[in-house]
Amino acid sequence: MLGIVAAVLFFVAFLINAAEIGTNDTFSSGNVMLLGLTLLALHVAGIGTSWHSRRRR
Questions:
Q1: What share of the chain is helix, strand, coil (3-state, %, to 5)?
Q2: Is residue 56 part of a domain?
Q3: Which domain holds residue 37?
Q4: For residue 13, is it within any domain?
Q5: Radius of gyration of the chain (CA)
Q6: CA dihedral for 24, 28, 34, 35, sign (positive or negative)
Q7: Is 32 contained in some domain?
Q8: How many domains does the chain fold into?
């Protein structure tokens, strides 16, 4: 799930950069890209993956 959110944030950062949209310092393309990288790192670390409980057989 976090990987999908990271991909969406990367796309938003690309659109901000490609369209040269003037945003304030909080929502600049670099900051949005860093949020995406943070979520991608959490996904790779296993934070956003689903855990299945072990069933007794």
A1: 60, 0, 40
A2: no
A3: 2-44
A4: yes
A5: 16
A6: positive
A7: yes
A8: 1
Whether 27 is covered by a domain: the verdict is yes
Q: What is the pLDDT of residues 1-57, one digit of tens each?
A: 777 888 888 888 888 778 877 777 777 778 888 888 888 888 888 876 666 656 666
Say what angle helices 2-18 and 29-44 make with each other, to 10 degrees: 160
Q: How many residues does the structure list for the chain?
A: 57
Which of helix, strand or coil describes residue 25?
A: coil
The predicted structure's pLDDT at residue 40: 87
Phi/psi region, residue 31 (left: phi>0; alpha: psi -120 to 50; beta: rest), is alpha
pTM for this entry: 0.66
Taking each continuous run of H as one helix and of E as one strand, the counts in the chain are 2, 0
